[in-house]
Amino acid sequence: PVKLIIDTDPGVDDAFAISLAALSEDVELLGVTSVFGNVGLEATTRNALRVLELCGRSDVPVAAGAARPLVHPQPARAGHVHGSDGLSGRSAALPEPRREIEPGGAIGLFVSLLEAADEPVTIAPIGPLTNIAVLLAAYPRLKEKIGRIVLMGGGVNRGNSTSAAEFNIWSDPEAARRVLVEEDVPCVMVPLDLTHQCAVDTAWLAKLAAASPIGAALDALTPDYLASYRRSLGWDGIVLHDAVAVAEAISPGILRTEPHPVEVDCSFGPGRGATLVDQRRPEMRGEGEGAVAPSTVQVAVATDVDGLGEFVLG
Ligand code: BDR
Ligand code: CA
Fold this sequence. Notes:
alpha/beta, single chain, 11 strands
């Protein structure tokens, strides 16, 4: 099984993604770390504990990470999308967690799990990349323990927080640039362009709800999230962004990827937080002799959408 650590800001789609990994037989879920994002850190941490409890996985350690971005003083919020508590105002309906958070915090948990690992570990960041940037900056020797980073974030031709930027990248562009551009660690980026292709409708949610009590509990977390898609896209369904990325973490190759140089806009202008995916052919990039090789990211571009929907249904 894939050894996996999820870094998350639950978040309705995060809750689906955590459950997917927590219930999969193909995964050894080593730990879950929380980060500010959709809502504040206290709520994202509590939500992560609750979702694991729902899945009967109070054996999985949870640790709290960053409460704000590296540079910008104000954390972003998406309570208007995910509800005031991050789970459509329904988080209290989930079981009370029995497990306490780890005292050493997210970085402490990453360090102990990676040090102990005898096989490469996959990290699936599905929130702002602050914790991951700090980990790579502070513990470069642990990079060799990381098999791949499979992250949900960015866009090739679309944004959601702004016309240019996707929420996870926009929430901490400097951290995202550190991970995607500056550090030589293998990254798979699952952008909005692909997650939107994998949107699920209310019939799919009804099927999930009918399949098991856990499915029903997840479906019960979706009303505010559904309402926000209805408002913004005029459509009766939701995009389970983070579950698409975690599917790839669990089942390598379920998404088709292409290698592209990626840059992150860290300016304070209108492009802040945009991912610039260079789709030009190498000979068009003017990479003559002596040029610095750009960092290459595997960008997820396509999948068998129906197959993926079935995979997430379990
Ligand atoms: C990403 O932003 C968050 O709102 C979701 O949980 C997902 O990780 C989509 O842009
Ligand atoms: Ca998320």
